[in-house]
Amino acid sequence: MIIIKQKLESSKQKLSSININSLEAAEQARISFESLQGSINKFCLLNDQVTKIININVREKLLKSTNESTSTDNVQQPKTINMKHEIMKTHKEREANLKIKTTGTPDENKIEEKHITESPETNEKVSNILSFNGIAENLFNEEDVKGYPIDLVSITYDKLMILNSCKNIFELAQKLAKGADLKELTGNSSGTWQFRINDTYRIRFETCGDSKGFINVRIGDYH
């Protein structure tokens, strides 16, 4: 009987110890959970702050990019001239009102009127111009040109057609008006010929000696 009582007493002590340990473990678990919950809350708060900062930076960059794009759009870009459109447009305008649009001396105007009757759409061009240099080839082929004065596109095309229709310098002298100022240059430019487009621009080229045709045809600045 005594042994049984001792065993019962021992069991009670063990149970009491187990309960105490369980309570301590539960308390520790509760504290750990609260600490973890606090860390999670801090992380969420920090994440919200970082997200706001990122959104602000993104908005600032987008606004800056938009302003730069708008500023770039406001900068005047060099115009690309649609050669065929401008040549056709100018020919029609000049055909409708030749007396209003003049380009220089009366002799030059007469020459231009003569070549208005020639169709600018024809592809049958005599190959007396054997080589080009620079934008002269683009103007001759009715291609787009950047930076060349739009009001000279058709005029230059007509004058290149005159040059291309001549076999040599003698024929060119007969077809050009006196106001075109056809002449051979001297000094370092000896061997180069030129004639007038307007006050600023000239068509320059070299001849092929006794052979027919012209080479290195280009647009030059008189000044």
- The number of helical segments is 6
Q: Describe the sheet with the most strands.
A: 4 strands, antiparallel
Percent strand: 5-15%
Helix fraction, binned, reads 40-55%
Calculate the terminal CA-CA distance, rounded to whole Å.
135 Å
| H/E series | HEHHHEHHEEEE
Strand order of the largest sheet: 3-4-5-6
CATH topology annotation of the largest domain: YaeB-like fold
Question: CATH superfamily membership of the largest domain, which one?
Answer: RelE-like
- CATH architecture annotation name of the largest domain: 2-Layer Sandwich
Report the mean per-residue pLDDT as an integer. Answer: 76
Helical/strand content category:
alpha+beta
Q: Quick one: overall form?
A: rod-shaped
Radius of gyration: 45 Å
Number of domains: 2
Low-confidence stretches: 97-123
- How many E-type strands? 6
CATH class of the largest domain: Alpha Beta
Keywords:
223 residues; alpha+beta; YaeB-like fold; four-stranded antiparallel β-sheet; two-stranded antiparallel sheet
Can I get a quick summary?
The chain starts with a helix and ends with a strand. By secondary structure, the chain is α+β, with helices and mostly antiparallel strands. It has helices spanning 2-74, 83-96, 106-116, 136-140, 153-164, 169-175, and strands at residues 80-81, 145-146, 183-184, 192-196, 201-207, 214-221.
Fold and architecture overview:
The chain is α+β, with helices and mostly antiparallel strands and 223 residues long. It has 2 domains: 1-75; 80-221, RelE-like (YaeB-like fold, 2-Layer Sandwich), CATH 3.30.2310. It is 55% helix and 12% strand. It contains 6 helices and 6 strands. It has helices spanning 2-74, 83-96, 106-116, 136-140, 153-164, 169-175, and strands at 80-81, 145-146, 183-184, 192-196, 201-207, 214-221. The protein has a 4-stranded antiparallel beta sheet, with helices on one face. Strands 1-2 form a two-stranded antiparallel ribbon. The protein is rod-shaped. The N and C termini lie far apart (135 Å). The relative contact order is 0.09. Mean pLDDT is 76; it is low at 97-123.
